[in-house]
């Protein structure tokens, strides 16, 4: 339990696997698109239409013929990766980043039956839990960051107490073009530009590939490896460097990428991987950020998925790393934190995203139906750096906004030393009239990847479910926090050598109370080399296991997930 400490800032006027040791893998430039457990890669002839997925453990050969320009550019790539910008830092060394269960599975998995080893799967879970995460189709030849890697969706489809697992890449333009070529064509954002010389060298080769027709960046450069969202009767795989990619689930649990979606031409640039969906209205709210003005652009979608006009926010005066935000019934809430685009760090060999200790973090509050930024208000909140937001709501007095979010106490380590990051969940209240800000810590644990009952998005909620970093990015358990009491009221540790992912709350059908439902998550036993799907009772203090499913193969650690009910899956096919 944490004391209910209240910190008041000065009054201020508002302003307008062990068996997968990456060090033993010889890097080849050959992706696999079918299921197998071997890490050996081969080359094959590209076909215009891929064959249907082979049965498990079948090995498909595919030969690729590299053009003369491609061979030349690959040679230059090797020179850069080995001599100009080798992966010296642990945060960019694939032998470190892709160790243990962070190692990719280099093949897809068609829908495969799972074994239920404990309990039963409740009827409320009829549907699919899908989790996104980076899974590079090529073993890296040079620097590699945890945030890089092609998106792979791992979906467990549940029907009448039985489950099947399917793992498929999100077939982005980048993935498909590189898959056909047999090697990487476009550098990744977080690992490809870590010095001025490396940026210039890789930029030159990329420009040459574009000029010779190997790659067309207007068709997308993103990875769609971060999260998923369901709105407007469409399911999207998301990554903030590109447009959303529409996804479909077949009745047997297979995953299909329909394609890049621009909302009838109204979305021409990237979008956040964390849109917020109002369960009462069906509306979705989103934004994008970037390195050139406007550094922040806000927009929304109606319940049918029709996009409204952009609202550029020029009062954000520096390019901030704005990964997430929150909504209330009246406002959109943004955080201008100390992480941002930092070209000066790149010159000295640092990441393109770095911290600025001299910057004072701010919270920006904009009316959620605003057509411009005239009513945007910014409030200084020293020492408050958030990457993820959990929820926000309007207080009954009509002038106070409450925000719940994990505050990163060591923000300078966010990009390169996640193991040193400590995030503490706080409740922050902002009086939009007086500018007074109060803060209350809700837990002293290292917590992130937190969720709520999605029916309470933008409204006052009581319970938060968060992943325990031990250290990040490994997750050793999950806790339940009572926001009203300001204390933990539930906890489950996964056990020695077992690590999970972001929990996701699924409400029990017919449930009345906010916490009447289940927490679901993938979990991996590093000692046994086995992955499982856990269903936990969200109301019980120890998150009692309702069902445990042994998965037919390893599921690597990843990022964010989503549960889609069977009724919503049927709407996707329409």
TrEMBL record:
Name assigned to this protein: Carotenoid cleavage dioxygenase 4
Superkingdom assignment: Eukaryota
The organism's taxonomic lineage, starting at the top: Eukaryota, Viridiplantae, Streptophyta, Embryophyta, Tracheophyta
Keywords assigned: Dioxygenase, Iron, Metal-binding, Oxidoreductase
Entry's Gene Ontology molecular function annotations: carotenoid dioxygenase activity; metal ion binding
Cofactor binding note of this UniProt entry: Binds 1 Fe(2+) ion per subunit.
Gene Ontology biological process terms from the UniProt entry: carotene catabolic process
Protein's UniProt keywords contain Cell cycle: no
